[in-house]
Amino acid sequence: MEIKEVNLAENQDFFEVALRIYKNDPNWVAPLEVEIKSLFDKNKNKLLQNGDYKAWVLYKSNIPVGRIIAFWTEKKSKKRRPYEGGLSFFECINNQEAANLLFGTAIEWLKTQEMQVVDAITVPGENYNYWGVLVEGFVRQGFGMPYNPPYYKKLFEDYGFQNYYEQYSYHVDLTKDFPERHVKFAQHILNSTEYDFKYLDINNPEKFAKDITTIFNDVWSVFHADYVPVEYHEFLKTFEELKPIIKPKYVWLAYHNTHPVGMAICLPDLNQAIKPFKGKLNLFNKIRLIFRLKKISRARLFVTGVNPKYQRTGLIYGIFLKLTDSLKEDKIKELEMSWVGDYNPKVNQLYKHMGNTIKAKTHVTFRYIIDKNIEFKRFENLKEHES
After folding, report:
1. pTM for the predicted model, two decimal places
2. What's the pLDDT tens digit per position in 29-55?
3. Phi-psi map region of 89: left, alpha, beta (phi>0 left; psi -120 to 50 alpha)
4. 289-303 per-position pLDDT tens digit
5. CATH 1.25.10.10 fits 176-332, yes or no
6. Domain 2-167+369-386 belongs in CATH node 3.40.630.30
């Protein structure tokens, strides 16, 4: 076997690896190549402008059989210790020797970049897309959720990766009525004059991005002990990228005295539309996408959150009712809520008891200790324990 460093913008073998591995897997949907390239384009991803990455393809008898990307960013990797590198878009045949060669090459490079630990699977950005290794629930994933064969868990663990934290996804059956008591409580919140509920104004993306940034940082800065604030321009950029597929009534914000305090951001499950594209978004597929979007029957809840000062008010139920009513109007039959960490018992409990909800999938974020002087510890929400 031979491993080669490649240029993502030019090397098609990197994408060919996945097409070969999942050739006979009906559940797999190829991520859009343009999206992967954009994540690792320093002109488009500002996080990487103060950081770096390398990509490799593994060959066996001149056939691409594995791939991996290693990266680090100043904002995410070097603002705290231990310095954290990341591994992205790993794919490999069921062969430990092949996996070890990919892992070893990537980790050796991260060592030269002063990284002390490495997490997988992650991306140079926020954690709502392409994050974690699937270990339970091998069904078709929602758009942005990673999918892989069951044997990946063993490949990681046999190399020495450990379970850093687990991520749970919940599926909501929208064809069934929610429990009456839940609906009444949510309606009570909506009828209150204390809060305003507004859906996305597609013509005012700047205000949308500003309000989302406020809520996101208000929620996660309190919740996560190692939180690094998200900047306004990051959400504005995401909005512009998603504008062709985003639906205004799939995005709801709650306000108290004009201050944004809660949100739910949902998108149609694009995977239902792009499956035949095999990762290609050429002109022909863009035209096909316009028509295929009309047939989507699933949606994915990417981000939800309520300012900690308002979490005991039941505000989330009002937001959720607004969202699910909008989805039902569009004949959406299933909502995927992904994902919630195992370190977040409150939200897990909330999702489990919303009604018509099942825990459908588990992903794991693995950690490998590069600097052997560092003790492995599972991720904990230290701020949650202290509150």
Report:
1. 0.92
2. 999 999 999 999 999 898 899 999 999
3. left
4. 989 988 999 999 998
5. no
6. yes
